[in-house]
Design goal:
- About 65% of the residues lie in helices and about 0% in strands.
- With about 120 residues, the protein is mainly alpha-helical.
Protein backbone atom coordinates (compact mmCIF):
# COMPACT_ATOMS: atom_id res chain seq x y z
CA UNK A 1 0.00 0.00 0.00
CA UNK A 2 1.51 3.31 -1.01
CA UNK A 3 -1.10 5.92 -0.16
CA UNK A 4 -1.85 6.70 3.48
CA UNK A 5 -5.41 7.81 2.65
CA UNK A 6 -6.80 4.40 3.66
CA UNK A 7 -5.05 4.68 7.02
CA UNK A 8 -6.44 8.18 7.53
CA UNK A 9 -9.92 6.89 6.70
CA UNK A 10 -9.53 4.10 9.27
CA UNK A 11 -8.41 6.59 11.92
CA UNK A 12 -11.46 8.74 11.15
CA UNK A 13 -13.71 5.67 11.43
CA UNK A 14 -12.07 4.80 14.76
CA UNK A 15 -12.76 8.30 16.12
CA UNK A 16 -16.39 8.04 14.99
CA UNK A 17 -16.86 4.56 16.53
CA UNK A 18 -15.16 5.59 19.78
CA UNK A 19 -17.24 8.74 20.17
CA UNK A 20 -20.46 7.06 19.04
CA UNK A 21 -20.15 4.33 21.65
CA UNK A 22 -19.92 6.92 24.41
CA UNK A 23 -22.67 9.16 23.01
CA UNK A 24 -25.04 6.24 22.44
CA UNK A 25 -24.44 5.06 25.98
CA UNK A 26 -25.34 8.47 27.36
CA UNK A 27 -28.59 8.55 25.36
CA UNK A 28 -30.07 5.38 26.88
CA UNK A 29 -32.94 6.56 29.06
CA UNK A 30 -34.78 4.64 31.67
CA UNK A 31 -35.05 4.15 35.37
CA UNK A 32 -31.88 3.76 37.37
CA UNK A 33 -32.00 0.01 37.76
CA UNK A 34 -29.96 -3.03 36.83
CA UNK A 35 -31.53 -3.50 33.39
CA UNK A 36 -30.74 0.03 32.27
CA UNK A 37 -27.20 -0.27 33.63
CA UNK A 38 -26.62 -3.49 31.72
CA UNK A 39 -28.08 -1.95 28.56
CA UNK A 40 -25.64 0.95 28.87
CA UNK A 41 -22.72 -1.35 29.55
CA UNK A 42 -23.68 -3.57 26.62
CA UNK A 43 -23.85 -0.60 24.25
CA UNK A 44 -20.51 0.77 25.46
CA UNK A 45 -18.77 -2.61 25.24
CA UNK A 46 -20.04 -3.33 21.73
CA UNK A 47 -19.02 0.11 20.48
CA UNK A 48 -15.60 -0.18 22.06
CA UNK A 49 -15.09 -3.63 20.53
CA UNK A 50 -15.90 -2.18 17.10
CA UNK A 51 -13.45 0.66 17.78
CA UNK A 52 -10.81 -1.87 18.88
CA UNK A 53 -11.26 -3.84 15.67
CA UNK A 54 -10.86 -0.69 13.61
CA UNK A 55 -7.77 0.26 15.66
CA UNK A 56 -6.18 -3.13 14.96
CA UNK A 57 -6.86 -2.86 11.23
CA UNK A 58 -5.53 0.70 11.24
CA UNK A 59 -2.31 -0.38 13.00
CA UNK A 60 -1.75 -3.23 10.55
CA UNK A 61 -2.45 -0.95 7.58
CA UNK A 62 -0.04 1.65 8.96
CA UNK A 63 2.69 -0.95 9.31
CA UNK A 64 2.12 -2.12 5.72
CA UNK A 65 2.60 1.35 4.24
CA UNK A 66 5.42 1.49 1.72
CA UNK A 67 7.44 4.57 0.95
CA UNK A 68 5.68 6.46 3.72
CA UNK A 69 7.40 8.54 6.31
CA UNK A 70 7.08 8.13 10.02
CA UNK A 71 4.13 10.53 10.37
CA UNK A 72 1.52 8.49 8.43
CA UNK A 73 2.61 5.39 10.31
CA UNK A 74 2.35 7.17 13.64
CA UNK A 75 -1.09 8.47 12.72
CA UNK A 76 -2.16 4.95 11.80
CA UNK A 77 -0.80 3.53 15.06
CA UNK A 78 -2.41 6.23 17.20
CA UNK A 79 -5.79 4.46 17.70
CA UNK A 80 -4.08 1.31 18.94
CA UNK A 81 -1.74 3.30 21.18
CA UNK A 82 -4.66 5.24 22.68
CA UNK A 83 -6.60 2.01 23.25
CA UNK A 84 -3.62 0.37 24.96
CA UNK A 85 -3.07 3.49 27.09
CA UNK A 86 -6.71 3.42 28.26
CA UNK A 87 -6.47 -0.28 29.12
CA UNK A 88 -3.22 0.32 31.01
CA UNK A 89 -4.72 3.25 32.92
CA UNK A 90 -7.77 1.25 34.00
CA UNK A 91 -5.59 -1.70 35.01
CA UNK A 92 -3.26 0.53 37.02
CA UNK A 93 -6.20 2.24 38.71
CA UNK A 94 -7.68 -1.11 39.72
CA UNK A 95 -4.36 -2.38 41.06
CA UNK A 96 -3.29 0.80 42.85
CA UNK A 97 -6.57 2.10 44.24
CA UNK A 98 -7.29 0.75 47.70
CA UNK A 99 -10.16 2.52 49.41
CA UNK A 100 -9.64 3.40 53.03
CA UNK A 101 -11.96 1.87 55.58
CA UNK A 102 -14.65 4.16 56.95
CA UNK A 103 -14.01 6.06 60.17
CA UNK A 104 -17.23 4.90 61.75
CA UNK A 105 -17.10 1.69 63.74
CA UNK A 106 -18.91 -1.39 62.62
CA UNK A 107 -22.54 -1.83 63.56
CA UNK A 108 -22.76 -2.73 67.26
CA UNK A 109 -24.00 -6.23 68.00
CA UNK A 110 -27.71 -6.54 68.49
CA UNK A 111 -29.12 -7.30 71.90
CA UNK A 112 -30.34 -10.86 72.37
CA UNK A 113 -34.04 -11.40 71.99
CA UNK A 114 -34.31 -13.55 75.14
CA UNK A 115 -32.44 -13.39 78.40
CA UNK A 116 -29.60 -15.85 78.75
CA UNK A 117 -30.85 -18.97 80.49
CA UNK A 118 -34.42 -18.48 79.40
CA UNK A 119 -35.50 -21.11 76.99
CA UNK A 120 -38.68 -20.56 75.10
CA UNK A 121 -41.38 -23.10 75.68
CA UNK A 122 -42.02 -25.13 72.57
CA UNK A 123 -45.12 -27.25 72.40
CA UNK A 124 -45.27 -30.10 69.99
Amino acid sequence: MRSPRFVYLLVLLWVIAFAASILLTMNIDGPRNLDTGFARLDTLARGQLVALGIAIVSAVAALLLRDAGWLPRLIGLTPMLVTLAIIAAFTAAMLLYHPTPPDTPATPPRAPVTEPGDTPAVEY
